[in-house]
Structure formats: structure tokens, C-alpha cells
Write a structure and sequence with these properties.
alpha/beta, D-Maltodextrin-Binding Protein, domain 2, 2 domains, six-stranded mixed sheet, five-stranded mixed sheet, 47% helix, disordered N terminus
Length: 337
């Protein structure tokens, strides 16, 4: 397992760092002709992150006077690299996937909890596989180094197993879902909307999900620290716009789900299943998440536990203080605190 995880670190994090060191990254917040460029926010397929399109299409960025460019990455790991190399100003990504660049000295700030996975990430298996232990010797596919790889390792560890007990196959989520549907894997670890499609079309079932590990997978808006320092007003406007869209979603769910399903290229019914598998965080719940605590409701607690787990697998270097990642000022202002 250690060799595989080291490969993960090399492929997903070290190459972007080499590129960053060589060219200095691309400052997408440059000022040209006295006017700042749009703030570029990356996102990838995940129910909670499609909400950014609701923010955009309902005019909440415009309402708050901030120019934002949403950049969609069909492959999630590409969005991680885009932020690590400075090609975007911010990314929608998980807490666990933010720890590796942090441990490598890339200065990032998490300013918002979009949601928490609550069933949206899952091990989808053939119907005759009754338990995690039944995966021994079976072919299991998911993308190396992503949060669903972490979910797989967590499920195995909770059942006294290691990655070496299964036939692990490295595939992006975009490929792991079709592979399961085609019968090329006994199980695949997927997030929505790929999970629902695999269960339906692959005649599979959810064997283990983030419901079994509540709080393990917070989904965040993560900025380059330089953008937070140089353009705090714009960051605040973006956070405020997000909460406006969240309120709109609560009051107009049917309309919003239909709009977002089009972006996800799925049916409103399937997209709603995806939204039901996450918990969207209000401003008050954000404040609670950013507060120090002794369970997974606290980002600090979750980050420390996850970092320790990943360090034991040689996936991240030592992090002296995980709190340098968190900047709660924007959600505090949004909540009027």
C-alpha cells in the first residue's frame, strides 16, 4: 500500500509542484489596464459544487458586484492540479485533498464549507457481495489519491483489511463507473452523480458509503492565500453570493434542481438523489465547522485525524499546524458575527 500511496503523491501532487517551481504558476488574478481579472473558481462533478451554477445563473455574483469565471473540470484531480499550480484562483475540493499541497508548502485558505458528504461517496459493488470482507481478492476501482481512495482505505481498515487484500485498479471516477457497469470491476468507489448511474445501469448496490463515516468528507471552497490577502472584498462577495443561492435553493428546489441537472447532464430525479446524499452547510453550520471541537463536526479535528492517517501511508508530509488552512472571517461576516 505504501508504494501505491507514494505513487499517488508523486502523480497528483509532486508534478504540479515541479511545474509551479519551474514557471511560478499563472496568476489569474492579474490586473490589466487598472481592472482586475475575474476570480476563477474551479469545480468538478459533485452535487454540491454544481450549486455554483445556481449562483451564476440567478445573478448572485452580479448582485454582489463580483466578476467570477467558473471553470469546469470533468476530471476532479485536474482541478486539484489547477489550484496547486496557480492556474485558477480557487477550487471546490475536499479537505483531505487539500492536506497534501498544504504539507508541501503551497499556501491555501479554506474559506467556506459547501457541504458534507452523507452517502454521496460510496463503494458500489455487485449484488452478490455481502460485506467489505467479501471484497478480498476482488477487483476494486477508484482514482488513486482522491478522497474516494481514502474512503476505500477507511472501509478496509475498519474491517481489518489492507489494500493488498484486494485487486486495486487505479481509474478516474469517470472511468471507474463505466468499468463497473461493463462488468470489468467487482466494485468501484464513486461519487455522485456517477454512483447513482452505476447502481442503476450496473445493477449494483451501495456496500459502504460516507454515511458510515459522517464528517469524514467535508467539501470546501479553497483559495490561493494570495487571492485572499489581495482581494478579500471579492472573496467576501463570493461567499455572500453562495449563501444567497443556498437560500434560493431552499425556496425553489424544484426549479433549481432542474437547472442544475442540465449542467450535470442527468435527470432532475437522479440529480435530486445526489443532492439528498449531501448536507449543504448554512452560515451558522459553517461557523460551527470552523470552531475547534472534539469530533468530525470540527474541521480542525477532521484535518488532524485525516493528516495523521495519510502521514502513516506516506501520502502527505508532516503538517505542524492544520489551522493555518482555515480562514473563517468570511462566513462569520456572512452570518453577521
Amino acid at each position: 500500500m505504501t508504494k501505491i500511496m507514494k505513487m499517488c503523491l508523486t502523480l497528483i501532487m509532486l508534478m504540479p509542484l515541479i511545474t509551479l517551481a519551474g514557471c511560478g504558476g499563472n496568476n489569474s488574478s492579474a490586473v490589466e489596464g487598472g481592472k482586475e481579472d475575474p476570480v476563477t473558481i474551479a469545480l468538478s462533478p459533485w452535487p454540491g459544487w454544481y450549486m455554483w451554477y445556481l449562483v451564476e445563473e440567478k445573478g448572485f455574483f452580479e448582485k454582489h458586484g463580483v466578476d467570477v469565471n467558473l471553470q469546469f473540470f470533468p476530471v476532479y484531480s485536474d482541478s486539484l492540479q489547477a489550484l496547486a499550480t496557480g492556474k485558477v484562483d480557487a477550487n471546490s475540493q475536499t479537505l483531505s485533498d487539500t492536506l497534501a499541497p498544504l504539507s508541501k508548502g503551497i499556501k491555501l485558505k479554506a474559506v467556506l464549507v459547501n457541504d458534507n458528504s452523507f452517502g454521496g461517496d460510496a463503494i458500489v459493488s455487485k449484488s452478490d457481495i455481502a460485506s467489505i470482507k467479501d471484497l478480498k481478492g476482488k477487483t476494486v476501482a477508484t482514482e488513486l489519491g482522491t478522497v474516494d481512495h481514502l474512503l476505500l482505505l477507511t472501509a478496509l481498515a475498519e474491517n481489518g483489511m489492507k489494500e493488498s487484500d484486494i485487486n486495486y485498479v487505479n481509474m478516474t471516477v469517470n472511468d471507474a463507473g463505466p468499468a463497473f457497469i461493463a462488468g470489468q470491476s467487482d466494485a468501484s468507489v464513486l461519487w455522485e452523480p456517477f454512483q447513482t448511474k452505476a447502481v442503476k445501469e450496473g445493477k449494483g448496490k451501495v456496500l459502504f458509503s460516507s454515511k458510515d463515516t459522517p464528517g469524514l468528507i467535508p467539501d470546501l471552497l479553497v483559495f490561493k492565500e494570495s487571492v485572499v490577502n489581495d482581494r478579500p472584498e471579492d472573496v467576501q462577495k463570493i461567499v455572500d453570493a453562495w449563501f444567497d443561492a443556498l437560500a434560493y435553493f431552499q425556496d425553489h428546489q424544484e426549479e433549481a434542481i432542474e437547472l442544475l441537472a442540465k449542467h450535470a447532464e442527468t435527470t432532475p430525479e437522479d440529480f435530486k438523489l445526489g443532492m439528498d446524499s449531501i448536507k449543504l452547510f448554512t452560515a451558522e453550520e459553517n461557523i460551527q465547522a470552523f470552531t475547534e471541537g472534539s469530533d468530525y463536526t470540527s474541521l480542525k479535528f477532521t484535518a488532524e485525524k485525516t493528516a495523521k492517517f495519510l502521514q502513516g501511508l506516506d501520502m502527505v508530509d508532516s503538517i505542524d499546524d492544520v489551522t493555518i488552512l482555515f480562514d473563517p472571517q468570511f462566513v462569520q461576516k456572512a452570518a453577521g458575527k
